[in-house]
Design goal:
- Pfam families: Branch (PF02485).
- By secondary structure, this protein is an alpha/beta fold.
- It has 13 helices and 16 strands.
- The strands form 6 sheets. Strands 5-4-3-6-13 form a 5-stranded mixed beta sheet, sandwiched between helices.
Length: about 400
C-alpha cells in the first residue's frame, strides 16, 4: 500500500549529424567522469599535495553546474494522494513545481493538497498549487490547453530553469533527481527529448482527421466530449508527427509555444487551432515543422510508456529500461513502494534524499537543506547514462529525426 496520502480530515536548427556528433562525444566523456563518481558531487574539489611549500594544488575536473527543471504535475478527482507521492519522489530545491487538479476535484481536495504539500517542505517557495482549474478530458484539446497553461504559469513564477517536464498522477520516477540532474548537466541545454515518428497509423482517422467538441474548453459543468460525424482533410503544407505524452522540453521551446509561432507555416497554425491534438501530437508536430527547433530533437523522452498498467511483475523490466520515468501505474500499487525502497531510498512521507540533504536523522535526512548544487548520484545515473548512450549512438535514432515515412 502507498504511504503518502492526505490526512483523512485535511483538506537555427543545427544539422542532424552535427547534433549527434556533439552529443555522442559528450557522452563518451561522461562515461569516464561517471566511473569516477563514487562520492557526493560538489561544484569543485581539490587534492592537496604533501609538500606544504608547494602552493599549487591539483584540482580535479569540476563538473558542470546542474540544471534546473520545471515540473507540471496534473491530476483529477481522487488523485491528491498519488500526486503527493509523485511530488515527493521528484522533489529537489533547484527545481520549480506546479501541481494542478482539474475541476472534477472539489475545493476541499484542492485545499488539502496545497496544505499538505506546503507543510511537508516548510512552505517551500519553489512549489505552487494552482487555483481553480478547468475540466480536462485526456482525449480532447483541453488536456493540451491545460499543459500549456501550466507551462505559462511556471514561466511567470520563474524563468530560471532549463527543461520543462509534464507528468500525471499515473507517472513515477525510476531514478533520483540527483541522478537526472547529474546526467542532464553534461548535456547541451538546447536539446528536446521527444519521442516522435511521422508514422501516424490508426491515429490518422481519430486524432488528425477527427473533429472533436471538447466541452471543457467552453462550459463550466462536467459535460462529455464527442466527435463530429464529419472528417477533415489531412494537411499538405506540413507533416504531422506523433509520440509519447511525456516530453522533456527546453525553456526556449516552451517560450516559443506560448509567446508565438513566428517560424511556423500559417497553415500549421490554422490546423493546430482547429484540430483535437494532444500533447503527444502537438509537441512533435511543432518541433519537426520549425526551422528553429527541428535540429534539437533527441528521439526519446527518457520515459517508459507501457500499454498496460504496471505492477510488481514489471519491476525488473523497469530497471532494465534505464528510463527516468515510467507509466501508467495503478494508483496505490505495491510496486511504487518497492521503487521507493529499492531505487529511490525514500521514506514514507519524505522526499528522496540527495546531496542537498544535511539532516542527521535517518528518518528525516532532508530536514536540513544544504547546497543545492551538490549532487549524490545513485546507481540510477548509470542506468540512465547507458540508455542515453544507446540512444545517441543508434543509427536508427539519428536517421529517424523528423523524417517522413
Amino acid at each position: 500500500m502507498r504511504h503518502d496520502h492526505l490526512p483523512p480530515s485535511s483538506t537555427t536548427a543545427a544539422a542532424i549529424p552535427s547534433l549527434y556528433i556533439i552529443l555522442t562525444t559528450t557522452f563518451f566523456t561522461l562515461l569516464l567522469i561517471l566511473t569516477l563518481t563514487t562520492a557526493p558531487r560538489s561544484p569543485s574539489f581539490h587534492t592537496h599535495q604533501n609538500d606544504q611549500n608547494d602552493q599549487n594544488t591539483t584540482t580535479a575536473l569540476s563538473p558542470p553546474p546542474p540544471p534546473s527543471l520545471a515540473y507540471l504535475i496534473s491530476g483529477s478527482i481522487n488523485n491528491s494522494g498519488p500526486m503527493i507521492s509523485l511530488f515527493l519522489s521528484i522533489y529537489h530545491p533547484r527545481n520549480q513545481y506546479l501541481l494542478q487538479l482539474d475541476r472534477s476535484a472539489n475545493q476541499t481536495e484542492r485545499d488539502a493538497l496545497e496544505i499538505t504539500v506546503q507543510s511537508l517542505l516548510g512552505a517551500s517557495k519553489n512549489v505552487r498549487v494552482i487555483g481553480m482549474e478547468d475540466y480536462v478530458f485526456s482525449s480532447g484539446p483541453s488536456a493540451l490547453s491545460s499543459t500549456l497553461q501550466g507551462a505559462s504559469v511556471l514561466l511567470r513564477l520563474s524563468d530560471h530553469w532549463d527543461w520543462f517536464i509534464n507528468l500525471s498522477a499515473s507517472d513515477y520516477p525510476l531514478v533520483t533527481q540527483d541522478d537526472l540532474l547529474h546526467i542532464l548537466s553534461y548535456l547541451p541545454r538546447d536539446v528536446n527529448f521527444v519521442n516522435h515518428t511521422s508514422y501516424i497509423g490508426w491515429r490518422e482517422s481519430w486524432k488528425l482527421k477527427g473533429i472533436i467538441v471538447d466541452s471543457a474548453l467552453f462550459l463550466a459543468d462536467d459535460s462529455e466530449t464527442f466527435y463530429a460525424t464529419q472528417k477533415r482533410h489531412l494537411p499538405d503544407a506540413f507533416r504531422p508527427f506523433t509520440g509519447s505524452s511525456v516530453a522533456i522540453l527546453i525553456l526556449k521551446f516552451i517560450e516559443f509555444c506560448i509567446m508565438g509561432f513566428n517560424n511556423l507555416p500559417r497553415t500549421l497554425l490554422m490546423y493546430l487551432s482547429n484540430t483535437a491534438l494532444s500533447t503527444s501530437v502537438y509537441f512533435p508536430t511543432v518541433l519537426c515543422n520549425s526551422r528553429q527547433f527541428k535540429g534539437t530533437l533527441i528521439n526519446h523522452s527518457l520515459h517508459y510508456a507501457s500499454p498496460n498498467l504496471l505492477n510488481s511483475s514489471n519491476f525488473d523490466e523497469l530497471i532494465k529500461t534505464g528510463a527516468a520515468f515510467a507509466s501508467p501505474f495503478a494508483l496505490d500499487d505495491p510496486v511504487l513502494d518497492r521503487i521507493d525502497q529499492e531505487l529511490l531510498q525514500r521514506n514514507p512521507g519524505k522526499p528522496v534524499p540527495g546531496g542537498w540533504c544535511l539532516g542527521e536523522s535517518s528518518e528525516d535526512q532532508c530536514g536540513v537543506c544544504g547546497e543545492t548544487d551538490v549532487l549524490k548520484p545513485s546507481p540510477g545515473a548509470k542506468r540512465l547514462e547507458k540508455l542515453l548512450v544507446e540512444v545517441l549512438s543508434s543509427e536508427a535514432t539519428q536517421s529517424h529525426q523528423c523524417v517522413d515515412k
